[in-house]
Amino acid sequence: KAGVTQTPRYLIKTRGQQVTLSCSPISGHRSVSWYQQTPGQGLQFLFEYFSETQRNKGNFPGRFSGRQFSNSRSEMNVSTLELGDSALYLCASSLTQGVTEAFFGQGTRLTVV
Amino acid sequence: DQQVKQNSPSLSVQEGRISILNCDYTNSMFDYFLWYKKYPAEGPTFLISISSIKDKNEDGRFTVFLNKSAKHLSLHIVPSQPGDSAVYFCAASAGRTGGFKTIFGAGTRLFVKA
Question: Which letter, b or e, does each residue of B5-27 get, where b requires 16 or more Cβ atoms within 10 Å of its Cβ?
Answer without folding.
Answer: bbeeeebebeeeeebbbbbbbee
